[in-house]
Amino acid sequence: MRVTFGTTFRNAAGELARVAEHMAERQRQVTSGRKIHTVSDNPNAALGAVAERAEMGTVDRYRQTADSATARLTVVDTVLADVIQKIEQASARLTVVQGSNVSQTERDAIVAEMAGIRDAIYSSMTTQFRGAYLFAGTDTTTAPYTKLPGGAVSAYAGDTQTAVLDVDRQHTVQVTFNGDAIMRGSAAADLFTTLETLMTAIAASDATGMAAGAADLAAAHVRVSAAQSRVGTDLASLDDRRAVLDSARRAADTRRAAYEDANMVEAITGMTQAETAYRAALGATSKLGQLSLLDYLR
Amino acid sequence: MSIFGTLASAARSLDAQRYGLDVTGQNIANVNTPGYARREALLTTATTADQLSAGGGVDIAGLRSVRDALVERRLFQERPAMQREQVLSETLAVVESALGAPGSGLDASLTKFFDAFSQLAEDPLSAPARQQVVLTGQGVSADFRDLVSRLSLAQKDANNRIRAGVDELNSLATRIASLNVAIGAAGANAGQAASVVDEQLAEVHKLAALIDVEVIARPGGGVDVSFAGGQPLVIGERAYAVTAVPAGPNGFFDIVSSGTTVTGLVTEGRLGGYVHARDTAIPAYLTDLDTLAYTLATQVNALHDAGFDRSGADAPVFFTALGAPAGAASLLSVNPAVVADPNLIAAASVAGAVGNNQQARAIANLRDARVLVGGTATLHDGWGNLLYRVGADSTGAKAELRTRTEIVRQVENLRDSVSGVSLDEEAMRMLKFQRAYEANARFFRAVDEAIDVLFTLKR
């Protein structure tokens, strides 16, 4: 085959362009740390990267929701612990007043103390988190209980529904509570009514009434403790969930990095090889046309 | 032959060797001229009827351009495919850049949009959370519209290039037709005819870069050219005008030749690339975007419309209702009523339960819902699939371009091996004709001296 200078230069130019493109690509990988700059660099990897970034976004969102739910449930846990403590305090005072040698003055003092406990529980059960009542079901702008003239507490004014948050694809946690289910449950009267009845019984030294009140207090203690236990379980599960989410986030990021990020050792080695190839191609090209029969003609 | 006949023969020989040198010079001068085919001086032995003569010396029989018709035809076939892939590769690179890299395009907007509904679910009473839902809804709508705008711009650019290409095509066809006339007129002037043929072939190669053509050599020299589908472009001295006629709802140009629409026949060359990008590739991407936007709007609206707003009233649709997938991406927008009053956003599934977050959760969870491709793909999957499709098309075009470029390079090398000028060969030819000229000059002097001797006999 005849080889002309046109052929030689065309081939050399084509090869130079190819090697230069390869070197530029390697240099870009090294400087950016990424091996995908446009989708066409590796469509499969880009598809994987989109999926992994979506997964990371979802996991991040669940993680933030879990943090928010934890903050809210921590408040609920504290409130319920306070209510339990108040019920125990009321039970202790009741035990004292149920003794044989209690004067009317002492009974009146204990009644006043019981009123304070009622008010404290009322205050706890109307706790708000970011402006929303925690124990009003989903009617979060309505106070679940209100103080009536004379100091008594109203009947439950919230609704019976509860709101949950998604903290993972298959996991939810309850973040608003039906106060009535905690204060009354299946009993005939709620804790506030129980305390009112008890105060009347104490003031009147009504042993039967006090005994009934003690039983109702015990039942309320069981209900609130059960509610707190559920919240505690949810809080613990949130800790577990966060660990799972963090692990899932790391795994997704690792997979994303495998799709998108350059292996720097490989990239630098590749760039060095590409530079060598480019230098060799330039050297070979510069030799083109140096020899010619024209040089030998006199 | 008389001695004067011998002298005339020597003079013709000198002319012949000078002609050889002239041809060599012409070859060397055109070593870098595109489309130039090396020339060969055709010399032939001059005969004579004179029995006392050894011969008539040498005659210049003509000039030949060394060319292989099959190789030229192969170039006409391969160049259009390479140019098509070049155009596709460039156009798809523009589309790719419009879509953005993973994590910086529509997928990021979708994530923010669903995140906003998650935040609203955490706090359905929050005014900032509601405002955030509106803003991210507007953001994702704007992203869809921007994408449509960028893809449409690429489509319009391809359309404008088609019109410019048609102008170029007409100009080339007219030039080729006029060169057909010039080739006929060159007649016996071999040097001029060869130059005109070179020029015409160069023009035909330019035409082949625009569209796929059929080139047929004319018996008397020159070429007839037609579209690959048979529609004539140049027959003899006549060039058939091609026009770009606006047609269809977009007003995109159809390519019309002699009253017949030939857009479908233009599948290769730069024009073929632009036609494919404008009529096939980009519309397919726009359809995918429309499907994505329509599905997002209908899925969100269905949930939103079933929910209740901040005041407990029935919520309106979140996105402005879309009638059909066609054009959905360019029409997607947040319901103006919702923009004006974010309290209309439905977080609740029950009327009056302001703390109910069921609907906000359901909309947030759409991020994982398989609502595309017959319930097999999420919205993010849909976006990923579109990116993949564009990337794969672009990668395919680049790979095909590399292959086609290599093929064209090989064919050009093959053409060079036949028609290209080799400086080494020309140096040898130069030496050959130079030496022959010197020898003939010596012979001429010898005959001249013989005549001198003859004249001295008379003194």
Describe the protein.
The complex is a heterodimer of chains A (298) and B (459). Chain A has seven helices and four strands. Chain A has a two-stranded antiparallel ribbon. Chain A has a two-stranded antiparallel sheet with strand order 3-4. Chain A has 298 residues and is mainly alpha-helical. The model of chain A has no long low-confidence stretch (mean pLDDT 92). The longest helix of chain A has 55 residues, at 43-97. The longest helix of chain B has 60 residues, at 127-186. The model of chain B has no long low-confidence stretch (mean pLDDT 92). Chain B is 62% helix and 10% strand. Chain B has a four-stranded antiparallel beta sheet with strand order 3-4-5-6. Chain B has a three-stranded antiparallel beta sheet with strand order 7-8-9, covered by helices on one side. Chain B has a two-stranded antiparallel ribbon with strand order 1-2. With 459 residues, chain B is of the alpha+beta class. The chains are: A mainly alpha (298), B alpha+beta (459). At the A-B interface, α1, α2, β2 and β3 of A face α2, α3, α9, α10 and α11 of B.
Task: Compile the SSE list and pairings.
The complex is a heterodimer of chains A (298) and B (459).
Chain A: H1 5-32, H2 43-97, H3 104-125, E1 128-129, E2 132-133, E3 164-168, E4 171-174, H4 179-183, H5 191-203, H6 207-260, H7 264-287
Antiparallel strand pairs in A: 1-2, 3-4
Helix pairs in contact in A: 1-7, 2-3, 2-6, 3-5, 5-6
Chain B: H1 3-29, E1 39-45, E2 58-65, H2 69-99, H3 106-122, H4 127-186, H5 190-210, E3 213-217, E4 223-227, E5 232-235, E6 238-239, E7 242-247, E8 252-257, E9 260-261, H6 269-306, H7 328-331, H8 336-340, H9 358-364, H10 379-419, H11 423-456
Antiparallel strand pairs in B: 1-2, 3-4, 4-5, 5-6, 7-8, 8-9
Helix pairs in contact in B: 1-11, 2-4, 2-5, 2-6, 2-10, 3-4, 3-9, 4-5, 4-6, 6-9, 6-10
